[in-house]
Design goal:
By secondary structure, the protein is α/β, with parallel strands linked by helices. The chain has helices at 41-49, 71-80, 96-101, 110-114, 120-132, 148-161, 178-195, 206-212, 235-242, 257-260; strands at 3-12, 15-25, 30-34, 56-61, 64-65, 81-84, 166-170, 198-203, 215-220, 223-228. It contains 10 helices and 10 strands. The protein has a 6-stranded mixed β-sheet, with helices on both faces. Helix 5 crosses helix 6 (148-161) and helix 6 packs parallel to helix 7 (178-195). It starts with a strand and ends in an 11-residue tail after the last helix.
């Protein structure tokens, strides 16, 4: 078993953000986690990455308990399980390649970190990753000079510098226009297919989940209410995830009940 989440729970005082969530992943897939704001999606990813401690339950990756990791082992896991955030979390005044190289901080010496010194092989690798994502020409620019979509690709490049075994993307396209959102999702899909990495991505839109993901997990009020293939994400399933009385204005900015069934499932590499 690659990843096993068992009865994972997180409470904040009297509020339960994630309520006994369980699922297993046997082989690397691109998984979309969908649901309304406040459904518990971000908290789930933050617990998997160990940015947030769980209240109860267990997470196992290749049989090892992630929640039991401490100190250096916990930091090593956070490198293996790279996070991509909605707001990019770049250093705006630093150049793009330096931002990407920050993905190596967990394995660098204190002296190298203080003086911002990077081995030449890491610099070449960073530029190679930027080239793969189509933004190598911006390597010398400040991050703040790039568009939102370009900055998110820099954040993806920084995650790849960590050489992660899994990538978690927390609403990576929520602040992007449709064209940049498509570019970012295509980049994540390519990374999954070409590198064989598992990608778990929090999403709001039904059409995005159906188009790019192999598997969709729907959350509502902290619980998993749907877990299946994109083809199984029917109107009835969507109502279960977003609420029977929803108009789907939040569920999708470009998808309505009338167009839901028309969205094609993801074109998998095997096809």
């Amino acid at each position: 078993m690659l990843l096993h989440v068992d009865a994972l729970t997180k409470t904040f005082g009297r509020n339960t953000a994630v309520d006994s969530v369980s699922f297993s992943v046997e082989t690397p897939k691109m998984i979309g986690v969908i649901g309304r704001s406040g459904a518990g999606k971000s908290t789930l990813l933050r617990m998997i990455n160990r940015l947030t401690d769980a209240t109860a339950g267990d997470i196992r990756f290749e049989g090892e308990s992630v929640l039991a990791l401490r100190g250096r082992a916990r930091r090593s896991w956070q490198s293996d399980c790279a996070m991509i955030f909605q707001q990019f979390n770049l250093v705006p005044r630093l150049d793009v390649v330096s931002n990407v190289l920050h993905g190596t901080l967990n394995r660098r010496s204190t002296l190298g970190t203080l003086f911002n010194l990077f081995p030449s092989e890491d610099i070449h690798r960073a530029i190679g990753i930027l080239d793969r994502l189509g933004i190598a020409e911006h390597a010398a620019k400040r991050a703040e000079a790039l568009s939102g979509g370009q900055q998110q690709r820099v954040a993806i490049a920084r995650a790849l510098m960590q050489e992660p075994r899994m990538i978690l993307a927390d609403e990576p396209i929520a602040s992007l226009d449709p064209m940049n959102a498509q570019t970012v999702m295509e980049s994540l899909r390519r990374i999954h297919e070409e590198d064989g990495r598992m990608v778990i991505c929090n999403l709001h839109t039904l059409d995005t989940a159906r188009r790019y993901c192999d598997r969709v997990i729907g959350m509502r009020a902290g619980q998993v209410v749907f877990d299946g293939s994109p083809e199984e994400l029917s109107t009835a399933a969507a109502r279960e995830i977003y609420g029977a009385d929803e108009t789907f204005s939040e569920a999708s900015t470009s998808t309505s009940l009338d167009t839901l069934e028309a969205v094609p499932p993801v074109a998998r590499a095997a096809e």
